[in-house]
């Protein structure tokens, strides 16, 4: 069984690939350029030698035909590629690649994905939760507010709204695409929406400055007391999840028949505040919060049955990673 994984050199995808290879899948790893795939291929060299992983370059996912060749003869697709940062100068910097990448891979799969049975897209809790606090959110909730904020404020919109709008619009368009092309497609869609993902990276990181965005925020909060203008004690963030559990969710989404056609929230804990991560790094038990968003994971438990790592395990493993590199 061969699975195409997009954004293969990224934080999440590298862990997904690790899980898939260990379970015997063959992986086609899609990256922007050959150079972007170097570290990945070195890391999984023993699998490459056995023909279990191959690299494919797809260029910028803004191009609608980027995945036309990549989708041929694969049994499933896991689409993680999307811009992930809070430095968007204007909304379309985030929205255009997110939407084109998602619609592009679906279109390519429809036209050329001769063997595709299932497509899994990584959306985000940012596509579920609006900035206003609501106590109990589930898969029926959508972050409409960030889209409105971007429409209203353009380049003055908050970067978090730009990212959130990119994830919300991309996911909405994906479901719409499946609805409109139901009679032409032979695969089903699963969408996984994780909250903030933290954990020890497997992908190429050469310094704290080159950490992927979410781990960078973790690093700054824990070691530099930089909370991006937020109050670390009282401003509730949405949820968190260990990278290995987020990756496992994607593998289970591939393997669980009942996941077909479902949007699934995966979340180890919600809400949290930045101080919780600092506390966990000092071995202090994080507090229980009464204010903030709680993501309902009943559907995930019913369909995927994940057992989430604790904040302590996640934190200890990142600290070990950081210590091994002598960064702190
Ligand atoms: P990374 O930044 O580590 O990985 C993103 C990947 O997408 C990279 O491989 C990147 O390639 C690729 N990509 C982005 N834009 C383009 C483009 N225009 N053309 C080609 N490739 C592109 O992020 P994560 O692994 O953390 O995120 C993966 C997915 O998970 C994303 O969809 C994200 O929205 C979602 N997610 C992440 C969360 C988190 O906390 N990390 C939380 C919830 C959801 P390149 O290196 O070449 O830029």
UniProtKB/TrEMBL annotation:
SUPFAM superfamilies found in the cross-reference section: NAD(P)-binding Rossmann-fold domains
Stored Pfam families: Epimerase
Keyword annotations of the record: Oxidoreductase
Highest taxon in the source lineage: Eukaryota
Ranges of residues in domain NAD-dependent epimerase/dehydratase: 3-265
InterPro entries the UniProt entry points to: Epimerase_deHydtase, NAD(P)-bd_dom_sf, NAD(P)_dehydrat-like
GO molecular-function term, one example from the UniProt record: oxidoreductase activity, acting on the CH-OH group of donors, NAD or NADP as acceptor
Family: Belongs to the NAD(P)-dependent epimerase/dehydratase family. Dihydroflavonol-4-reductase subfamily.
Protein name: NAD-dependent epimerase/dehydratase domain-containing protein
């Amino acid at each position: 069984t061969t699975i195409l994984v997009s954004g293969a050199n990224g934080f999440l995808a590298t862990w997904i690939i690790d899980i898939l290879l260990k379970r015997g899948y063959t992986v086609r790893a899609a990256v922007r350029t050959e150079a972007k795939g170097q570290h990945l291929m070195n890391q999984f060299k023993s699998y490459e030698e056995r023909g279990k992983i191959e690299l494919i370059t797809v260029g910028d996912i803004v191009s609608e035909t980027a995945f036309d060749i990549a989708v041929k003869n694969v049994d499933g697709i896991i689409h993680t590629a999307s811009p992930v940062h809070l430095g968007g100068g204007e909304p379309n910097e985030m929205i255009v690649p997110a939407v084109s990448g998602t619609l592009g891979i679906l279109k390519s799969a429809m036209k050329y994905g001769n063997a595709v049975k299932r497509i899994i897209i990584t959306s985000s809790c940012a596509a579920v939760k609006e900035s206003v606090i609501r106590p109990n959110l589930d898969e029926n909730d959508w972050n409409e507010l960030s889209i409105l904020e971007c429409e209203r404020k353009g380049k003055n919109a908050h970067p978090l709204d730009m990212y959130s709008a990119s994830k919300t619009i991309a996911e909405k368009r994906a479901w719409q695409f499946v609805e409109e092309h139901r009679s032409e497609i032979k695969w089903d869609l699963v969408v996984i929406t994780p909250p903030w993902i933290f954990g020890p990276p497997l992908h190429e990181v050469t310094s704290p400055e080159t950490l992927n965005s979410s781990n960078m925020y973790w690093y700054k909060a824990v070691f530099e007391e930089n909370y991006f203008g937020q109050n670390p004690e009282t401003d509730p963030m949405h949820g968190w999840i260990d990278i290995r559990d987020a990756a496992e969710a994607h593998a289970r989404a591939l393997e669980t028949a009942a996941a077909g056609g479902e949007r699934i929230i995966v979340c180890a804990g919600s809400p949290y505040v930045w101080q919780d991560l600092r506390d966990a790094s000092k071995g202090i038990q994080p507090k229980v919060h009464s204010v903030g968003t709680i993501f309902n994971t009943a559907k995930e438990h019913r369909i995927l049955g994940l057992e989430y790592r604790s904040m302590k395990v996640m934190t200890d493993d990142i600290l070990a990673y950081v210590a091994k590199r002598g960064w702190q």
